[in-house]
Design brief:
Number of domains: 4
Strand order of the largest sheet: 1-22-18-17-21-2
Oligomer: single chain
Largest sheet: 6 strands, mixed
Number of strands: 22
Strand content: 35-45%
Helix content: 25-40%
Amino acid sequence: MDKAIEKKKLAIWQWGLIVALIAAGGWYLYQLLADASIRTYRISQEQLIVSDVEYGAFEDLIPIRGTIQPFQSVFLDAVIGGAVEEVFVEEGSFVEAGAPLVQLTNTETRLNAAQADAGTTEQLNFLNNLTTGFEYSRLSTERQRIDTEYRIITLKRQKERFEKLISDSLISEEEYDAITDELIYQEKVLANLKAFQQVQDTEREVRLIQIQEQIAMLEENLQISQTSFDSLLVRAPISGQLTSFPVEIGESKQNGQRLGQIDVIDRYKVVAQIDEYYVSRVTAGQDANFSLGGIEFGASVTKVYPEITEGTFEVDLIFQGMPPANIRRGQTLQMELTLGNPVESLLLPLGGFIQDTGGNWVFVLDASGEFAMRRDIRVGRRNIRYVEVREGLRQGERVITSSYGQMADMERIQLTQ
């Protein structure tokens, strides 16, 4: 007779072991599935640039490109247009201030100047005749007053003599009354002359002031007319080099047309174009440095032009100390402009990643150095070497700073040997 065999039950610790194995397997499978869901890009470590996040002094520098220009330039314009009759100098020549450069001819300007001279001269003669007439009238009135005053003196003497004679009955009362009446008459005439002379003097003073103003205006117009005619002969306003002078005999120049340019070449400045992003941070007095021929030189901003053209604005810089030797007009200089004093900050070396991410995120290596995970960051100012890190990174962390290219859409980078 067969005997039934009773199946042994598993111990509690065995059940626990089984559960643990099942949980570990599930967790491993979950990790495999989760890891597989992360977009990973594999690349050789030799193809990347990895930089350390460090703490140091951030120098607020920006690179600028400047062009050597004369410190002072004067443009030559045709004040009065005309045909080129004669050219006295050649382009590139050194000229002295006041030296004739080109003679223009303009028949209409010559005719207008001659007519203006004739008309102005005629008006000046008329006003001068009026002034002379006023003077003659003044002298005539003055002469009448002198004659009347003399007559009154004579009549007073005769009256005094007649007063003695009439008491002795040596003259008649009719003769005495005639002298007395004439004296009264002449005194009234004198009073009238004085009143007339006062009115005449007042009017003459007013008219003479007006005439002088008109004469001054006419003389100014005459001078302007002569200056317009003289401007057909273009002269050098300053001493310097005639660096541009595209003028040929016989060609016609319009009013205000550019004739050339004179440069003062014993002193130079640097004209630089800067991105409009920095327009609010660039001011006069800021320093710039550059290297030329292995020697360091300095310059400072003297003028900032606020106009923005095609995304850039212009600044003028002058050399500090001795300028470089043998520099030439139009020569280009690579410079570093300092926008502010150094500030201690968390720094990340600048690289190609900044163009791919705009500084909004980076790939940060883990402790093993085998993987780099995408991480959001916030950056501040940047110069030609570093970008200032505000949030998202810690000192000592390692970041991929080379260009991301195809890695930009990934979440993780696996570095291979």
